[in-house]
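Pinned message: reference record for Conjugative transposon protein TraK
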Amino acid sequence: MFTHLKNIETAFQQNKKIVALVILTSAFISIAAIYFSFAAYQNASAHIYVLANGKALEAIAADRKDNIPVEARDHIKMFHHYFFTLDPDEKVINGNISKALYLADESARNQYNDLKEKSYYNNLISGNISQQIAVDSVQLDMNEYPYYFKCFATEKLIRATSTIHKRLITQGYLRNVSRSDNNAHGFLIERWETISNRDTTLTRP
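Predicted structure (tokens):
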């Protein structure tokens, strides 16, 4: 009888070990499944698709901190593009200036008002002058916030009889703001000023 009880106890201990092993194995499989599912989700969420010309193009999302210098330079370029790309049309001028002023503080508005008071825009319209700009380079200091920048650009004024090239240098600071439809990069230009804007060449068109 004692031998029978001993066999029952031994079998019970073996069953406990088997049950414990099954539970640990199940727990391991569950944890592994959760981990790999989360990794797959993160990998999938890092890929986005952009619709361009009716085609879905794959892009990879990244943390903003990885793209700050790229976005900052593009913000500066877009601001200068809107502020200085002008045609002899009041609606075009107002439209571009409005877009530019969303990207900067009152320092840009002050420069706009100063040019307006000097009849700069009226002279463009009356003289049928188009103004274009190409940003050559942007120096950006990311070591201190707000971020200091200096922008080097070539400005071109196109008349019926001639084309004037100017060397434009501006400087200012960037601070972070909320992204919006009018400010996609989430930066605001502050204390913006023109350091130099001088004629360099005069050529026939």
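Pinned by admin. Summary line: Helices lie at 2-45, 64-84, 90-101, 106-117, 120-126.
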